[in-house]
Every structure is written in C-alpha cells, then in structure tokens.
C-alpha cells in the first residue's frame, strides 16, 4: 500500500511539474511588490490623461502640444492598457470616445485601384487639415491605437472602426488617383516600396509640400510594421502579415554595424534621433513578432541582439537614456519596452534585467519622474505609459 501511495505521489508530482512547465508564465523582471508600485504608477499616468479631456480630440490643461494624432493616439492606447490591467471602465470609455472622434476625422480619397481609401492629417482639425502633413509616421501610431481600441468596442462601433482601418490600409497600399488634399501635388500608386534595395520600406507620405517616396524609417516602423501587424490580427489576411514582415526585414537590413537603426527621411539621414527611432522600431518588432513562426522567431532573436547591445551601451549612469527632456529622450521609453520584450521572449539576460530595473529605480522616485517630464510632457508621458504597461503584461499595448 505504501509503495502504491509513493508511486501515485511521484506520478502526481511529475504530471503537475509537466503542467507547470507547459503553463509557465513568461519570466518577469520585477517582483510582485514592485509590480504593485508600477501599477499605481500607470494608474497615476492614466488618471492624468483623463484630466486632459482626451476624448474631445484636443487636450486641455496642458501647455504642451494639445492636438496631435500620434500623441493622442498613444494616450488612448495607454488608457486601454490601463483598463486591461486594472479593470477600470472609465479608462476604456475615454479611449472609445477618442476613437469615435478619430474615425469622424478621417478624410476620404479614391485610390489608384478605384477603391475608397482614407487618411488622417497629423493635425486633423478640419479648418487646418489642408495645411497639415499626410505623415505616415504619426498616422500609423494613431491607427494602431484605433486597432487596439477596436477590440474593446461594442458591436455597433466595431464595423465602423474596422472600415476606417481598412480604408487607411488601402490608402497605404494603393495611394490615390489625385492629390488627396487637392493641392496639385504628385500622386503614387502605392506608398510601399516594392522593389530594389529599399523593398519593404514605406515612404513618408506628403511632407513639407511634396510627395515623399524615399524610405522613411518611422513610417516603415509604425505603419508598415505595427499597424499592418494589427491589421493581420484583425482580418487574418496574409497580405498584411507580408507587409509587416517586409517592413521589419528592411529595418534590420539598413541597421548600422553597431546596432543603431538610422533615421532616414525624405532622402536624408539624420543622427539626432537614435532613441526616437528605436522606440518606433520597437513597436514594429513587438507587433510583428507575435505572428512569426518558430523559424522566423529564431532568426529574429539572433538578428536583434546587436540592437539590444547598442541600447545597453548607451544607457546613462542614472538609468535613463538621452539628454534630459530633449526631443529624442521624450520619445525614448520604447527602448525599455524592447529590453523587456527581449528578456521575456528571447533570453533572460542579466544585463538586460539590470538595465530595466535601473531605469525604473530612477523613474519611481517622484522628483526624478517630475524632472523627466511625466504628467507634463505629453510625448514622454504617453510613451512611458505604454512601456509600463508592457512591463506589467507583455503585449498588453497591442
């Protein structure tokens, strides 16, 4: 009897151990106690966003930029993430309110294939829309936010949101038969570069008064990468997966030997935005990785390591990246999301873990957080809100 009992216990332990292995949660950098602090930090950011009247489309109670589709889109996405992590309906409701207004602001055009396309200008208020850029860097960020909110919208809103997203995808892939803002500029049959050394990259859109079809790093990351990966998730249409995969391949192809990804825009390469560039590229990497097969994931794990090393080498002594409050730093928190993603999905690297913990050791000191610009600088606050969400629950911003 004792022997049978021992065997039963051993079998149970083995089975339970096997189940634990299969159901193993992704590795985490922070303890449960630290995650409570980070959740409170995210809730504080979300409550501040709520105070800005985001749903109106024009921020109030801020001296920073009050109307930008990418800033407001990031804020809406932070609110959805906060809803997912805290269950507080008010966050979701405000994000949905923003999405309603954002859909209402979409401009329509006829594509080169005689389909109805749609776009947003970077500053979409109707009285200034003709003077705003059709800028896929910002548009992709905002449309990705809409695609995330779609998952939490009611049954009446979802078809409306999806139609808007599909119209934008058509505009990206098919361009337009005439200047969509009626300014007499050149047109294109597609904003995606389909051949040559820059195959897979995306042009900027309309930039400073002209059609810009030279590869743009940011639009390739946000629109061709992150947004199209979301479109694949929502529709299961392989064409979107192919576009997003090609975008990521191009981003890695043009990367410097030291791991930095260059900021390319309108035929020029600038060296003032390395962290900004990596934050946006991280959006593409995290988005597209979700749908890679095992072979693609193994290859990507090797390919991304030089960029991880670049991030680690360029961390400041205080745990941050970049010059305090600089435009580049304001868009830098995404590098922390990429480090966390690498630790969770690729390798439990001690240096990566230490870098992430050092960053938040700095940020969780109230004086440091204020100096950094949290709840003051709208770009910084939005990007950091997304990063905190990813730390607390990987993929919670998608």
TrEMBL record:
Keywords: Signal. InterPro entries: 6-hairpin_glycosidase_sf. Residues 1-23 form the signal peptide. One of its GO terms (biological process) is carbohydrate metabolic process. This is Uncharacterized protein. It comes from Limihaloglobus sulfuriphilus.
């Amino acid at each position: 009897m004792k022997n049978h009992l021992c065997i039963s216990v051993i079998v149970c332990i083995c089975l339970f151990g096997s189940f634990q292995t299969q159901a193993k949660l992704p590795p985490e950098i922070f303890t449960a106690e630290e995650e409570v602090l980070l959740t409170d930090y995210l809730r504080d950011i979300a409550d501040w966003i709520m105070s800005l009247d985001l749903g109106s489309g024009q921020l109030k109670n801020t001296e920073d930029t009050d109307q930008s589709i990418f800033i407001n889109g990031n804020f809406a996405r932070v609110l959805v993430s906060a809803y997912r992590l805290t269950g507080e309906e008010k966050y979701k409701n405000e994000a949905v309110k923003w999405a309603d207004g954002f859909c209402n602001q979409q401009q329509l055009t006829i594509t080169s294939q005689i389909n109805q396309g749609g776009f947003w200008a970077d500053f979409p208020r109707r009285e200034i829309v003709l003077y705003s850029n059709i800028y896929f860097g910002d548009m992709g960020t905002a449309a990705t936010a809409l695609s995330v909110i779609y998952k939490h919208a009611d049954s009446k809103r979802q078809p409306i949101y999806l139609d808007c997203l599909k119209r934008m995808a058509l505009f990206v892939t098919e361009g337009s038969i005439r200047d969509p803002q009626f300014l007499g500029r050149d047109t294109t049959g597609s904003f995606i570069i389909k051949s040559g050394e820059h195959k897979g990259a995306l042009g900027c859109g309309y930039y400073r008064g002209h059609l810009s079809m030279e590869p743009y790093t940011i639009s390739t990351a946000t629109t061709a990468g992150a947004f199209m990966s979301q479109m694949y998730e929502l529709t299961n249409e392989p064409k979107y997966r192919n576009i997003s995969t090609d975008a990521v391949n191009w981003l890695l192809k043009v990367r410097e030997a030291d791991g930095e990804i260059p900021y390319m825009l309108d035929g020029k390469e600038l060296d003032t935005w390395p962290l900004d560039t990596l934050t946006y590229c991280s959006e593409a990497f995290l988005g597209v990785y979700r749908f890679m097969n095992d072979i693609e994931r193994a290859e990507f794990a090797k390919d991304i390591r030089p960029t991880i090393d670049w991030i680690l080498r360029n961390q400041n002594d205080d745990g941050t990246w970049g010059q305090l409050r600089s435009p580049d730093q304001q868009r830098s928190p995404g590098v922390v999301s990429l480090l966390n993603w690498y630790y969770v999905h690729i390798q439990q690297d001690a240096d990566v873990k230490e870098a992430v913990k050092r960053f938040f050791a700095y940020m969780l000191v109230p004086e440091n957080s204020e100096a950094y610009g949290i709840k003051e600088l709208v770009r910084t606050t939005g990007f950091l809100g997304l990063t905190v969400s990813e730390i607390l629950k990987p993929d919670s911003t998608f």
